[in-house]
Write a structure and sequence with these properties.
alpha/beta, 152 residues, single chain, 4-stranded mixed beta sheet, Collagenase (Catalytic Domain), 6 helices
Length: 152
């Protein structure tokens, strides 16, 4: 798996460990982590696949099935201000959500029904983060466990 990432917020090793927990069907060919909008220019043209919605920060992540690439937009995480752990937590949630889309695609399950696919990916990501919170705490080197609430 190729990872393109500045590693200021989440390291490549941390990303690899999260994917390892999920398993082989979740492992994309490439993962691109945009910490800032400037990274979109910095990483261009190696991974130019974004829309205005992604650039403007309205989208936290996306999965491109044609290139088997997951894109995560850390700069879109503004829920709790600039707290680094919050940015990491919600970026990991976005990552697991997008990796679930990869799983859906690879296993031909729900991927073509947007509403069902999105609901499944969000519930899966929330359940994964909360169930594995202690393991994630260790991977991320956090003092405390963090959990996410189910979005409606």
């Amino acid at each position: 798996m190729q990872i393109i990432n500045n590693q200021n917020i989440i390291t490549d090793k941390q990303l690899e460990n999260i994917v390892k927990i999920l398993g082989r069907d979740y492992k994309p060919r490439k993962m691109v982590i945009y910490e800032s909008k400037l990274d979109m220019l910095k990483f261009y043209p190696a991974c130019f696949n974004f829309t205005w919605e992604e650039f403007s920060g309205r989208l936290e992540g996306s999965f491109d099935d044609s290139s088997d690439t997951v894109y995560i937009f850390i700069y879109a995480q503004t829920d709790d201000g600039d707290d680094i752990h919050s940015k990491q937590l919600y970026s990991l949630h976005a990552l697991v959500h997008e990796l679930r889309h990869r799983y859906q695609y690879v296993n031909d399950s729900m991927y073509n029904d947007d509403e069902v696919s999105e609901r499944d990916a969000d519930r899966f990501a929330t359940k994964f983060i909360n169930k594995r919170s202690n393991q994630i705490r260790k991977i991320m080197h956090w003092d405390d466990e963090w959990t996410v609430e189910e979005e409606e």
